[in-house]
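Quick one, T. Sequence first:
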Amino acid sequence: MNLTLCGLVLVGCSIGPTDLPEVAPVSGTVTLDGKPLNNATLTFQPAVGRPSSGLTNKDGQYKLRYNLNLTGAKLGDHSVIITTYQEFDNPSDADRPASPELLPAKYHKKSELVAKITNGDNVVDFDLKSK
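Structure tokens:
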């Protein structure tokens, strides 16, 4: 009986979550006045469900993560927020120091940015303007 119980527990541990939504890979480039925007956080928020987020590198490139184990974003329409504001230095990520907001409110607090995520690879670029 103990062997059967142990086998059931192991089978239960090997099954992944079944309640995850369908997601697709999302990547792209963010520029500000034509120049790559480094250390900007992007948040893609679907109408229902959890958001996906990503961070731009020095070339302005990003890839979204749905969670620690899954890349991409939920299929469908999303509102998008892009911000450079970082309140504190992150000791676990020396490449991401505290930073002020460099972007106009129309890209974060009052964002009107949207994106539609479909099956397959999605490339969503943003050409932002400082004025």
